[in-house]
Amino acid sequence: MTYDLALALATFAFVSSITPGPNNLMLMASGANFGFRRTIPHMLGVAVGFVVMLLLVGAGLVQIFDAYPVSYTVLKVVSVVYLVYLAWKIANAAPVQTSGASGTPMSFLQAALFQWVNPKAWAMALTAITAYTPDQTLRAILLVGLIFGAINLPSVGSWTVLGQQMARFLTNRKRMVAFNWVMAGLLVASLYPVLWP
Predict the structure, then answer these.
(1) In this predicted model, what pLDDT tens digit does every residue of 32-89 receive, in sequence order?
(2) Measuring CA to CA, which residue among 91, 42, 84 is closest to residue 194?
(3) Domain parsing of the chain, residue ranges
(4) Could you tell me if 90 and 177 are in contact, meaning their C-beta atoms sit under 8 angstroms apart?
(5) Element (H or E) spanning 193, and its range?
(6) What is the DSSP string of 50-101?
(7) What's the pTM value of the predicted model, to 2 decimals?
């Protein structure tokens, strides 16, 4: 991979990782509801899960979509249903002050597995592999994974910090409930490119 291609990939990785999407909106909600420390497994699950997904897509998983186009449609339907379910859970999450220790943020494994039904993650992985690894060599695919891994974790972490800082203003139940409903609405709105490409 040339320096120019690596720089272009790093720019793509940053822009696609830092912009709003299902992962970032859920991390912001988790940061506000549970704080930074309790959201660390969620952040690590997003970062590691996405890199694993990216490497598997680069290793040939993308060929399944080429061979069986209906599999992509099935993935879209499952993704939409699951994201609507997660939005409902966020909207109805009890604020930390009332839920105390009973509230649970997404675990590392849940966040890693979520990448497989996250439409934005699929779009990022497919674009990264098809646009930035023209020769599809193992070395190029590993480099794409390394660059994304280095950029993705700090990017998603910033959304958790943003949520944690917002918690200072969400000091009563009404504000927290309103925040959770707004986050749920934005999560559903993030499906727009999937439903109407």
Answers:
(1) 989 999 999 999 999 999 999 999 998 887 677 778 888 777 877 777 787 788 788 8
(2) 84
(3) 3-195
(4) no
(5) helix 192-195
(6) HHHHHHHIIIIIHHHHHH-HHHHHHHHHHHHHHHHHHHHHHHTPPPHHHHGG
(7) 0.80
